[in-house]
Amino acid sequence: MIDRYFLEEMKNIWGEDNYYAKWIDVEAAVLKARNDNELSARLEQLKISPEEIREGEKTSGHELNSFLDIICSRLGEGSERIHAGLTSSDIMDTARILQMKESWNLILKELKVTRSIITAAAHRYKKIVLCGRTHGQFAEPVTVGLKFARFLKRADRNIERMKQAEDRILRGQISGAVGTYSLISPAEEKKILGILGLKPSLDSSQVIPRDIFAEYLFILSLISSMAEEIALEIRLLAQDGIKELSEPFISTQTGSSAMPHKKNPVICERICGLSRLVKGAVTTGLSNISLWNERDISHSSNERIILEQSSSLTYYILVKLKFVIENINVHEENIAANIEKAGALLYSSGVLKVLLESGVPRVKAYGAVKKIFQGGDIDRNSVKKKILEKFSVTEEKLDEVMDIQYYLKDVEGIFGEMEIS
Questions:
Q1: Same domain for 154 and 229?
Q2: Tens of pLDDT along 317-376?
Q3: Which of 188, 355, 412, 416 is deepest in the core (most CB within 10 A)?
């Protein structure tokens, strides 16, 4: 993980120092569960560097055995009781789950903060009307706040997913060489994991099932995709010729080495780019589910990359998204100009509705409205005049559907249904 996107909070979780410290925590918990408190206390005092473990690994070719050799040589008396009845994955997988738990809690906390900021934006901009767009073309009007209200529900679903999945994902194992508890008991496993704040993964073999890790990665990808969706919307509305929203751009900031006028949406583009990496890790996580028999080690190498990377990037993405939304620019003068530019196009669906309700056959009504608007006439009064000349409809009905507020009459109700408070 490169420093550029590796925030300190995640470095503290995913650094190798913390990973190996978690190994000590797991081994110490085993000793505590066996009432071997004196040895556990001595073990917890040890500090082992990643460099030491790698040096030992040159000889043994085995990371966990290198770790055990170091701690046993340092502990001396009683060290024969270390790791009794365990297998490497009991330590390594459980330690990894502990890292994931710390990450999970940090991301969930940041997601909740981001949610509150999205909520504030939904309320702040609820009544600012702008052109809706489908397929990149003018559609019925919406409001800026309604866009954020919809994003808010994405955040709510992600928070709910995290809460629902937490008990499934954050589980450890102390079940022995192939998960049969041959040299340890299920009761002892439960006690050990309880000390660590975990529950047992009841269907472990030599390893915790990898669908657990795949689900973790998938939920992170959904959170990152939510952020990407918001960032992409801001990018689209920041384009020249639209310029309705834009991310913050400080006075000393520059956008191009060649073109001094540029104000590129670099933070939103970065969010979109990094989200692709988080989503890409899901495929690897899914591929890790199918292992040989009780286990092989094909998952281990890539998990050292994708778990750290996806966790760290998801957190980084949320931090940046929070900054963008808190400081977003809403260009109301451009919004008004674009509404003027769209003209009566915003009302084509309403005009069609009036004709259909007056009894005009759909094919005839649709064709007439299409001919007027695709013929280039977007002036409200001109369109109304042509409709009144051709069809027996009331001016009052047309005025009703050619008023921008007609299309927004249920925005308050939508907010209420979404329970946005």
A1: yes
A2: 999 999 999 999 999 999 999 999 999 999 999 999 999 999 999 999 999 999 999 999
A3: 355
Instruction: Clarify whether 135 is annotated catalytic.
Output: yes
Supply the CATH number for residue 365's domain.
Answer: 1.10.40.30
Beta bridge partners of 142: 130
Structural domain harbouring 35: 3-81
Query: Which pLDDT belongs to residue 421?
Result: 72
Measured torsion, CA atoms of residues 269, 274, 276, 281, in degrees rounded to the nearest 10: 180
CA–CA distance, 81 with 30 (Å, rounded to integer): 10
Give, rounded to a whole angstrom, the gap between the first and last alpha carbons of the chain. 38
Q: What average pLDDT does the segment 220-225 reach?
A: 98
| Owner of token pair 């979780």 | 13
62 is catalytic: no
Q: What is the reported pTM?
A: 0.95
379: Cβ contacts below 8 Å, ≥ 6 apart:
343, 344
Whole-number Å distance between alpha carbons of 140 and 150? 16
E strand spans, 74-215: 129-130, 133-134, 137-138, 142-143, 171-172, 199-200
Residue 2: phi and psi, rounded to 5, are -80, 150
Three-class DSSP category at 213: helix
Whether the Cβ atoms of residue 328 and residue 122 lie closer than 8 Å to each other: no
By C-alpha distance, which of 371, 330, 318, 327 is closest to 348?
371
Identify residue 201 by its one-letter amino acid code: S
User: Which of 49, 73, 182, 256 is the catalytic position?
Assistant: 256
Distance CA 57, CA 300 (A): 16
Average of pLDDT values for 297-316?
97
Active-site annotation holder among 135, 251, 392, 421: 135
